[in-house]
Amino acid sequence: xxxxxxxxxxxxxxxxxxxxxxxxxxxxxPVFMFVSSFSIETFFSDNPMQTYGLLxxxxxxxxxFRGVYPSYVLTFNKALxxxxxxxxxxxxxxxxxxxxxxxxxxxxxxxxxxxxGKTLSRGLPLVKWFLAIPLYIVGIVYSIYGFIMLLLAxxxxxxxxxxxxxxxxxxxxxxxxxxxxxxxxxxxxxxxxxxFSL
Length: 198
What we know:
Elements: E1 6-9, H1 18-22, H2 24-27, H3 29-36, H4 41-44, H5 57-66, H6 71-91, E2 107-110, H7 128-131, H8 133-160, H9 165-186
Antiparallel strand pairs: 1-2
Helix pairs in contact: 8-9
């Protein structure tokens, strides 16, 4: 088992709903507002490193002073991170299934064994955000590529009712890349530096 977050998406390639694909962002607005309600900074900040209400500071403090990742914080972060990924899968046209606020089979996220945080470094959480800067830079390039594939997929769904496998693969791989970064630098569930590859 990998020591990184592993994400799998149930991608729907054929028989796509053209009407909902056309206005996907507008249709997803209610569930986006629900996700945003977990974080005040969504409404009042222009922070590019949006964390969607994930509990980060308590994790850093608990790891630093106690050497433990609190299980209740881990449970909350896993649930919210799963919700954010379900909303993303819908907005990114990977599925026509409206994002559930409960667990669903559309997105499956496997986390490394945290073991109460005892396997995690006590001081590393203070600098992981800095160590991840090269990952962010590469991720921006990947995101531009993924956005181009998303536009191609959107037009293809509108005109043919299907999503090309190539577009879906790139969107999924870019999403998996960012999830690995979040697992390392934001959710802090691993000390293993993520790979730069898609």
